[in-house]
Specification:
280 residues, 3 domains
């Protein structure tokens, strides 16, 4: 792999770190483990009329699980959720779900690839364009790449014309490697180094990395908290949101509050005791 240096980007030692993702020996581990959660409704004073859902990890009896003296709450990238959780659970430790962190990082290579594609060729990706052909391979973890895919990556980054994509791709791969590191302490150190390296001193040419660095710096405490509390997730919250979105879709623009409440009860089985008296 070439060194990341070009007239457009300048020297990029922060993107390389001490290892190359393609030659990394880091093992792949699960991003999350199963947990039992209790979901609590939280209404934030900063967003009147908006109710957030706080997913609280719990044991098999439904009691809230605590790390030391503090509970933990999984959240996504929406800061309103974090504010609502802090009001309802002031002693809880906020943990940003790895799914949302990786999603932020995975969007950067895509946006960079499209921008470089347009700058070099003046059009969107086509089947014959190297950047377009490698679009899915760029999202594959380096430890999962097959020999053919490694050859595609090596050919793509053989010159300097795609150096911006390479730098952004390495940021993404470093983040995945941190989460998949079987040693949580080592993973936390890798993530800390990554956040510090992309928070300041990023070349202006890497327009996709700079906002990512600002976001990670702002939410660094929440991101790093995952490595001390593995398995924390806001999956139950997303599940509830999915049911709410389905209800909103099936309502087809229904604006009558009484009818909407009735539809909500039908959606969630609230009329079951009425329709089936033996179930009371």
């Amino acid at each position: 792999m070439p060194t990341l240096s070009s007239p457009r980007c300048g020297s990029l030692p922060w993107a390389i770190h001490e290892m190359n993702p393609l030659s990394s020996g880091s093992g792949a581990g699960p991003l999350a483990t199963r947990s039992v959660f209790r979901v609590s409704a939280v209404r934030s004073r900063h967003a009147p009329g908006v109710t957030s859902r706080v997913a609280m990890p719990s044991d098999s009896t439904g009691n809230c699980e605590r790390q030391g003296t503090s509970a933990r709450s999984g959240s996504g990238g929406f800061t309103g959720f974090r504010t609502a959780a802090a009001e309802e659970l002031p002693d809880a430790v906020a943990v940003m779900d790895p799914f949302h962190v990786v999603r932020l990082a995975s969007d950067a290579p895509d946006r960079c690839r499209r921008r470089v594609q347009n700058d070099l060729h003046g059009h969107r990706g086509r089947a014959s364009d190297p950047l377009y052909k490698a679009r899915r391979t760029l999202h594959t973890g380096s430890d999962l790449l097959k020999n053919k895919q490694k050859a595609i990556i090596a050919a793509l980054f053989a010159g300097d014309e795609h150096v911006e994509v390479e730098a952004t791709w390495q940021v993404y791969q470093t983040m995945i490697g941190a989460y998949r590191d079987p040693d949580a302490t080592a993973g936390r150190e890798r993530m800390t180094t990554l956040i510090a390296s992309i928070s300041t001193g990023v070349p202006a040419a890497l327009v996709e990395v700079r906002p990512l660095g600002r976001t990670l710096k702002q939410r660094a405490a929440d991101v790093l908290a995952y490595f001390e509390r593995p398995g924390t997730s806001n999956r139950p919250t997303e599940a509830i949101n999915g049911r709410l979105e389905h209800l909103r879709g099936t309502a087809l623009g229904l604006r009558n509050l009484t009818n909407y409440i009735t539809r909500s009860l039908l959606e969630t089985g609230g009329f079951r005791p009425v329709l089936h008296p033996p179930l009371r």
